[in-house]
Each structure stands twice: as C-alpha cells, then as structure tokens.
Amino acid sequence: MPALVRRQRTGSVVCPSCGKLVGVNDEKCLNCGRRNPGMWGFAPAFRRLGQDFGFTTAVIGGCVALFVTSLLLDPSGIGRGGVFSLLAPTTRSLFVLGASGAVPVFELGRWWTVLSAAWLHGGVLHILFNMLWVRQLAPETAEAYGPARMVIIYTVSGVCGFLASSLVGHYMFFLPRFLGGASFTVGASAPIFGLLGAIVHYGRRRGSSALGRQALTYAVVLGLFGFVMRDIDNWAHLGGFLGGYLAAKWLDPWLPERVDHVVGAFACLAATVAAIVASVLTGLPALAQR
Questions:
Q1: Which residue from 80, 116, 193, 216 has the fewest beta carbons nearer than 10 Å?
Q2: How many CB atoms lie within 10 A of CB 281?
Q3: pLDDT digits (tens, 9 = 90+) for 241-290
Q4: By three-state DSSP, how is residue 200 classified?
Q5: pTM of the complete model
Q6: Residue among 16, 2, 10, 1 at smallest CA distance from 41
Q7: Are 118 and 188 a contacting pair, CB within 8 Å?
C-alpha cells in the first residue's frame, strides 16, 4: 500500500483536535476528549495531505475538471466575447452539470443544484479569482475549526447562498437587476463568503479581533464590488456569508473537532457528488433533445 494511505497500527499519533500525542488505538484523547483520535490508524495519512486534509486541492481540481467539461459539452462558448466572458461555458452546458438559480430550482424542480453550483464557473477569470480565494481561505478556516468542520461550513454556506439567490429570483423578480436574485447562477463565491463569515465568527469567539476585522473587510469590499460589476450574484454572496457565520457559530471553534464532524464532512462531499451526478443524468437527455 502507498505510504500516503498506509494505516498505522501501533505507536503514537498527533490528535487532530488538540495536537497532543495519543496512542493510535486510544478510544479517547485524555487531553481534549476527542473520540478515536487515531482515526482508525489513518490520522498520519490525513495529516500528510495538509492542514485541510487535501480539500483545497480537491476543490481546485474538481472545479477545473468541471469547467473543462462544461466547455467540451458545448464548445460554442470557447473564444466568445470580451475579456470577462472569455472561455464562457454556455447556459446549456452549465445547466447539465448543475447550475442553480430560480429557473432550475423552482421552475424545473432541480432543487439539488444548490449543492452542485458552487463547483461550476462562468468563465476563465471567474474560476481563476475564485480558486485564488479558496486557496487562501480554506486552509485558514481549517486551521481555526479543523478540516472536517471547514468542509461542513463550505458546503452549508454554498447551499445557503444559492438558496437565497434562487428564492429572491423566484419570488422577488420585480427587483432591479443589481438587487435581484438569479435565474441561473454558478460559482464558488457563495462558499468563499461563507469561509469569510466563519473567520469573522472565529475572531469574535476567540478574541482574534485583527483576524475577524480583516475577514469582514474582505467581505465588505467584495460585496461592494458586486454592486459595481455586472452579473454578480449578490444574494448568493450574502446568503453564503450568513450561512457560513451561522454554521461556524453552531460548530463552535472553542470545542474540539469530533468524529461526527468527520462523518458530517464525508456526508457533505457525498451529497455534492450525488447532486452533480443527478444533474448530469437528468440534464443530458434534455440537452440531446435540443
């Protein structure tokens, strides 16, 4: 078995919650109380993946793969438009892969797209800027809350952001464009704002005022930027920030990360993959009929 995933059966490991040495087979960490701190002998393997257990790499790789797929599904978007619409996938290809918004969620009943939309992007600059933010914020949030809770925050904030945008787009369609929701929407910016919300809460809860103020400043600046640029989903940003803040409050950074958090993180990832698969299976026949 490769060294990266080899299971450790004896000896000591570092507890993922408190950083103290524990026996690999201990049922409970005597320092922080975490159950199964050795994670069935795979704690060292997870640690080698980095502070976030490889989630940042997975997000970047998954988003890039889906972006390329969206271009290949309908190549008519390649080379179309100006700088901000360069390599822009068509609405049809994004629909197939799981774009969210008022139309998919409420008119077409594709409610699961609130999970899948965060992994799709509308252009090469869109994905580039979002992945730079993910690369910066995800490890920081993992360091503050633990990698499992970071994954939960990322997923929950994405769902909250796209649900907010879809609700406003469907029920408050009369609002002006810059205040309204979205008919179709994609992008990792909703969970990115959720990570900012989580860091703001961490600063308030742990007394790290400088960190919290910096994250809040980023959120305000990016939020104001959304009112200046066209086609920015401001409700997804707001919903993502509030979702991330509330999820972080529920997951309290003062408490150690537990095994049920790890289970919850894997459930979030499994639900996201299932949402993308469901979108493709139900969307491809519709694309073939066009």
A1: 80
A2: 10
A3: 999 999 999 998 888 888 889 899 999 999 999 999 999 999 887 666 65
A4: helix
A5: 0.84
A6: 10
A7: yes
